[in-house]
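Design a sequence for this backbone.
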């Protein structure tokens, strides 16, 4: 197992970090919860790691044919989404390792016009902040029960 203090950050997006198995995609949309961080609709599904497994994060980038009829535009939107995630994934990976989770993300473009990289970056920042906030355990506040 790699230690984050000695391992340099890796800004790659390997096949293990992409959702490609049908069962994983089906599980993501069946039991994940969704929210909008414009121009992205984010679907999140977390599962605890099993014995001998390592925590991981995997993504699925989707651009609808309904909004982008031409394949080159759909590919561009997906490339923008993957690039934005690739540069910001370390916060999520650290959280997955701390919590002992597998995190699967579906990142769907809901923009009707071709978004810019800045738009996608802004949405990705909002999405990752919200995911980290939801998955971080909150300290329980003591309640004053006066009789």
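Sequence:
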């Amino acid at each position: 197992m790699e230690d984050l203090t000695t391992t340099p950050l890796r800004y790659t997006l390997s096949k293990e970090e992409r959702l490609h198995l049908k069962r994983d995609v089906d599980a993501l949309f069946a039991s994940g919860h969704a929210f909008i961080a414009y121009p992205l609709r984010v679907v999140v599904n977390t599962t605890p790691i099993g014995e001998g497994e390592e925590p991981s994060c995997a993504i699925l980038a989707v651009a609808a044919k309904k909004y982008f009829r031409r394949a080159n535009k759909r590919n561009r939107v997906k490339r923008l989404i993957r690039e934005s995630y690739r540069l910001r994934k370390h916060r999520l990976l650290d959280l997955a390792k701390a919590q002992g989770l597998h995190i699967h993300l579906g990142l769907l473009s809901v923009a009707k016009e071709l978004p810019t990289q800045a738009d996608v970056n802004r949405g990705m920042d909002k999405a990752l902040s919200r995911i980290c906030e939801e998955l971080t355990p909150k300290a329980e506040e003591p309640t004053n029960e006066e009789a």
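Residues 20-133 form a domain with the Ribosomal Protein S5; domain 2 fold (CATH 3.30.230.10).
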